[in-house]
Amino acid sequence: MNLLLLIIVFTALGGVLSVLAAALFLLLPDRLRNHVLPHGISFAIGALLAVSFWGLIPHAFEEVAPEQFRGLSATILAGILIFFVLEKLLIWRHCHFNACEAHGEETQDHDHGSLLHSHGHRHSAGALIIVGDSIHNFVDGILIAAAFLTDPKLGMVTSLAVAAHEIPQEVGDFAILLHNGYTKRKALAYNILSSLATVLGGMLAYFSLEDLDHILPYILALAASSFIYVAVADLIPTLHRKTELKDSLEQIALIAAGVLLICAMHGIAHSFEG
């Protein structure tokens, strides 16, 4: 299949379909939805970590000479620190203008699944949610395209990891928009429009990155740092709020399931390639 078509299909999978899945998820009764969502977060952690350490980082190092290894490692470290600073600035902005407490509202929104940018404070404008999510989706599209340009099978598992962490985030975005007075129809329409930024980012990356092979390993390293940061800084802390042994075992099992699925997908892609 044409590489550009693959990028379009899988960026749509990571964007539009995750919005539709989140919309269906919102149809569940509140009690059931609140019970299921943490399980999805556990699975997303495993998927994000596996695609980073099993796929993106090894492929990035395979594409460069040994003398560039230190530079790639520095890129991963810098990426994690940059994402921390960006999220910190965004949280500060919301709290500065909305007078939120240091921890209270921020924690509430992570429970609803707005996981990457922490843009879901209860008094935030709906438009800010949509704009912030569009930027996030655009970057996801670039990362997926970069993975495909390196190796199609890596692109497939990367898009799966993007979808895994997008679904709980989109659930959070829906909840915030509805809280800010949007109808369900408008919230769905705006989220779908926002998700199209993933496809746009993938297409632009295809045309601009195809002849820039020397920077692809560094983009993969940044993608890995993004996924690692989301998993470790945003998702894992939400799991620690449940301390019962049964909950902990379920979390471990679902994280392992996310890891195994990504590894299995990688193996299947290898077998098709062979």
TrEMBL record:
<feature type="transmembrane region" description="Helical">
    <location>
        <begin position="248"/>
        <end position="269"/>
    </location>
</feature>
<feature type="transmembrane region" description="Helical">
    <location>
        <begin position="188"/>
        <end position="209"/>
    </location>
</feature>
<dbReference type="GO" id="GO:0016020">
    <property type="term" value="C:membrane"/>
</dbReference>
<keyword id="KW-0812">Transmembrane</keyword>
<dbReference type="GO" id="GO:0046873">
    <property type="term" value="F:metal ion transmembrane transporter activity"/>
</dbReference>
<feature type="transmembrane region" description="Helical">
    <location>
        <begin position="6"/>
        <end position="28"/>
    </location>
</feature>
<keyword id="KW-0472">Membrane</keyword>
<dbReference type="InterPro" id="IPR003689">
    <property type="entry name" value="ZIP"/>
</dbReference>
<dbReference type="Pfam" id="PF02535">
    <property type="entry name" value="Zip"/>
</dbReference>
<keyword id="KW-1133">Transmembrane helix</keyword>
<protein>
    <submittedName>
        <fullName>Putative divalent heavy-metal cations transporter</fullName>
    </submittedName>
</protein>
<feature type="transmembrane region" description="Helical">
    <location>
        <begin position="215"/>
        <end position="236"/>
    </location>
</feature>
<feature type="transmembrane region" description="Helical">
    <location>
        <begin position="69"/>
        <end position="86"/>
    </location>
</feature>
<feature type="transmembrane region" description="Helical">
    <location>
        <begin position="40"/>
        <end position="57"/>
    </location>
</feature>
